[in-house]
């Protein structure tokens, strides 16, 4: 066992309708335009906010080997059930049961309440070693976690939900976000007669470390330098631009000695010419910036048991994800009797649109006819308005929740 040092790497991860119907086998792809939430706003004078529409019960899940985690079930305030069940499987990093991003943004809490108000019983759980509000409660458990542990933990949570007396065990769906989209298909493959539906949000198709993390750290940021910062198309970007840009400033800070620059701050350089010993105030995107980004990626995946990243994970987890067979290779093993819904923001800079398209193509290839892909223009990884370069943080757009509910409703026993 070890006690890792945690590093905050949040800067590395940005954190009418228009329907485009594309028929592929029996698949329909919907592209939904941005949704105006004011259309659903209830005036405060008529809102009954004091009326309880959802009830909750807390429980502890025994994960084995002396490890346990907290969980919460939400369910309709009226009715005895049995209710169709939904298990929420979180993404990477130190993620609690609400998938907390900040005090105001808690996507899994939002999903659970929305679905439970409409007839579903939903279970969500803290990742092993994690407590409320991204708190790492047990560094040893967190630091020694692997993706196998995460799959096993989700399996146990699924069993707990299935055993609830007010849940219909024949109508349980599993919803995964980000890394959770790697775990969910594996549960469906292991439990073909127990899983009713699966939903993948912010989807991973390729290897999470070798492909997705490389894209986030290297490809996305070098392309950003090229398209946004290099306004004159010279192939060069000023050091001052880089040092003051939130998407790239860390490469200057982390490599200031290599670049012979002093007094580098996030607000830019005091005097970029004077502080540059070779008198050159620009970096070449291809021969200087991209190699620095590659170095940054290599440092992140280097096997160092003393180092952990809150937004990513620890070395054992990184190693296990690196060695894991990608989703693209396993998704075809999901029973054709299990419907699949893929929800994807088109401006997702963490798991880009191409990932969901790859899975959609693979499901077509294996003749899994009962799958649906819905993409959302201008939304990012957390299904909130985002640029194509950096994910915005805010509540899930209402149309996404409506689509999720409508699909689950039509594919569950309600």
UniProtKB/TrEMBL annotation:
- Keywords tagged on the record: Hydrolase, Membrane, Transmembrane, Transmembrane helix
Superkingdom of the source species: Archaea
Residues that span the membrane, as ranges: 12-33
Q: Does the keyword DNA-binding apply?
A: no
Q: Where is the AB hydrolase-1 domain?
A: 86-384
Looking up Pfam families in the UniProt record yields: Abhydrolase_1 (PF00561)
**Keyword Phosphoprotein recorded:** no
Q: Which GO molecular function terms does the record list? A: carboxylic ester hydrolase activity
Output the InterPro entries linked to this UniProt entry: AB_hydrolase_1, AB_hydrolase_Est10, AB_hydrolase_fold
Coiled-coil parts of chain: none
The molecule here is called Alpha/beta hydrolase family protein
Give the species.
Candidatus Nitrosocosmicus franklandianus
Q: What is the lineage of its organism?
A: Archaea, Nitrososphaerota, Nitrososphaeria, Nitrososphaerales, Nitrososphaeraceae
